[in-house]
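Order emerges. One example.
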Amino acid sequence: MRMSGIFYSLKQGIKNIWKNKLFSTASIATMTACIFLFGLFYAIVTNFQSMVKNVEEGVAITVFFEDGISDDQIEAIGRAIDLRKEDVLRSRYVSPEEAWEEYKLIYLDGDEEAAEGFGDDNPLKNSASYEIFLNDVSKQEELVNYLESLSGVSEVKQSETVANMLTDFNRLVGYVSMGIIAILFAVAIFLISNTVSVGITVRKEEIAIMKLIGASDFFVQAPFYVEGIMIGLIGSILPMFILYVMYGRLIRFISEKFSFLNNLMTFLTIEEVFRTLVPVAIILGIGIGFVGSALTIRKHLKV
């Protein structure tokens, strides 16, 4: 298509939106609501997933050794753990001395007499271990099976209940979000289709004349694609602006009015949320507008 044809399609597409103000406004409003709710769900889900990820990073697997194991064997187990880079976020060796100090800090804090009663005797002298934190808690069982197969390992302790709970929670949030978003986008496609359909009905005589003088199919169809895409674009930019303002103010409000929550949860920054959300929302808006137009053109515009 020549430049003149491109400008003609853009001009006619915008004219169609203006001529059908009622339907166009309804479509833009619906698209805005859909993308707004999508963005809202995305912000909530990503924050929940970030919080769950922080909890996951605190879920540890503890590897204990067989009695009489040598330092070389312990180092070999450490190297075997390091090989599982896709599963292991970080690991650390806990010596019997460190284990005893941590035990005293957690269980004997404030009871110095009980701790001093052991003197120089370390009751945890056989409790050296590796503490392993996971990249993905859903891979815990697979990693435990691998660790139990290593020579010199006597026991592997895991937080199976916590791991299953976090995995199931992530899956549930994902399914619910996808279901709601799919319904909203189906409604948006339906309304955009109706808007484009009205435009085709209004311009039927003009389209017939254009075909008689030799206009190509794409030249006739292009303005309606532009109409749908413009509706999708406008309907995706507006909610991003609203959400951007709302999200920033909401985070500040929660931080100022409910400061105790700062110790329990950490919200993602505006930049962390919107650097992915904005391009995804715009692509979705344009895509939905295009699909709505394409479905209507195929059904009502026989060219």
The chain has a mean pLDDT of 76. The longest helix spans residues 160-202. Strands lie at 60-65, 88-94, 129-134, 153-157.
